[in-house]
Each structure stands twice: as C-alpha cells, then as structure tokens.
Amino acid sequence: MELAGWWLVLETTGRSAQVGIVHNGETMHQESLAESRRHARDLARSAQTLLQSVNSSLREVSGVLISRGPGSYTGLRVGMISAQSLAYATGCPLVMIDTFAAVAAQTPESVATVEIISDAQQDHVYHQRFCRTESGAWLAVDELRITALGDWLVQLPADVPISGPGVRTFDAKIPAAIPRIGSDAQQPGILGMIAVARHAGPNGNRHAILTPIAEATPLYLRGSSAEEKLKQQTKSATAS
Predict the structure, then answer these.
(1) Please, which residues bridge with residue 129 across strands?
(2) Each residue's pLDDT tens digit, 52-75
(3) Strand pairing of 145-148 and 17-23?
(4) Which phi-psi region, left, alpha or beta, contains residue 112 (left: φ > 0; alpha: ψ -120 to 50)?
(5) Hey, what's the torsion of the CAs at 133, 216, 106, 114, to 10 degrees?
(6) In degrees rounded to 5, what are phi and psi of residue 223?
(7) Beta carbons of 10 and 43 less than 8 angstroms apart
C-alpha cells in the first residue's frame, strides 16, 4: 500500500495513545498521550498540532491508519471513533491495522517466527503466531485466540520467542527459558503500523484492511471488563 502524501496514524490500544503523521511512507512526527488525555478531542487536537508543525492541515491528509486491536476496550472504542471522525472530515480512506501484526513487524530481522500476546483479563491471554515471509512481511499462521495462561504455556513451542504487551504483564508467570523479544519492541507503535500498511497491496490485505468508514469496528473477542464481570455474576447467580 502506497502511503502517498500525508497520513495520520492513531494507536490507542494501550493505556497511553500515540498519534503520528507520515509523509510518503516516512514518519515525520509522533506524540504520546497519557491515559488521562486518551479522548477523541485530544487525539484530534494532537493530529492538528502535528500537521501544523510541518505547515500542513487536515485538508491535505490522504488517509488515516488506526490500530484495531486487540487491546484496551475503551482505547479501541475511542481510537476508532476518532479515526472515523478524521476520515469523514477529510474525505480520505480509513485503513484498520491489526495490532498484533504491527507488533510482529517490530521484531528484529534475525527472527523468523514470533508469538504475540496481550492480557485478556482473568489470567487469560490473547495470542497469535506470525511468520516472516520472503518479502519481509509478517503474516499470521493461526487465528487470534483467547486461552487460559496455563493452557497457552503448555502448547507454546519452547523455541518460539514471544512479544507483545502481555509479556510484561505475565513475565513472572512465564518460564525464563522461553525467549523474549526486547522490551522496546513489545508495545504496539506507529512504526509497526506503517510497516504493515507498506507491505499490503493497494487494496490492503488481512492485516491492513481498507474499510468503508461507517463499517469500521474494533477487533473485540470479549466484552469490556464491566460486561465480563456482569456476565460472571449472572452465571454465578443462575448456578446458585
């Protein structure tokens, strides 16, 4: 996918958010926003400020990249709404980037296979394995799943390194013998998202989805923490 002109990049799957601007496929500027500023108005304001810093404006934006998950329920919802609003305002394409593919794209060139994980709450993990292709792109070799941490550890090959935000969360529970990608590459970021988009064709691929703005939705495999808690309470009440 050719990122010609100015593109906005939004990454909101974690506690903090990242906003970046890209010109002809090269990152120009990016800003991190603390959790307290991870709101639609702050994301839009940050995007406008970054564009102004390079003497550009929303009118000149050619497209928007948004990280679609998995990740923080609130972050995903706010990020997607912000991306849709910016795409509507500029009349430009919206491309959803798989968050785990973006993390895989940050893996060192010496690694050919990596397992990406993140916290799915209640001692469960989101997990998905990726392999590097001859072109240098990373493609998933299985489906994104949620599995109990103990069950996931049993099925993980000992020689497959792990990465993703879940490594920090579960580090103490994961055997030291399992190789880990460096901590600087474990969190989803702007550069990984750009790499995924650049390896996609003009109409995108399974990890970089060119989508109608109104149909863009985050990648959820479970409800919010509140919804999951209510579900568990309802289940317990029914059982008793």
Answers:
(1) 115
(2) 999 999 999 999 999 999 999 989
(3) unpaired
(4) alpha
(5) -60
(6) -80, -175
(7) yes
Containing H/E element for 152?
Answer: helix 149-155
Domain enclosing residue 67, as ranges? 6-99+188-225
Task: Decide which of 169, 185, 201 is a domain's last residue.
Answer: 185
Question: What phi and psi, each to the nearest 5 degrees, are found at residue 71?
Answer: 170, -160
Length of the chain equals 240
Q: Where are the beta strands (DSSP E) in 46-137?
A: 61-67, 94-97, 113-119, 124-132
SS3 26: strand
Does residue 213 belong to any structural domain of this protein? yes
Amino acid at 94: L
Note the pTM of the prediction, 2 decimals: 0.91
Contact 47, 65 (CB under 8 A): no
Query: What tokens appear for 146 in the block?
Result: 């949620």
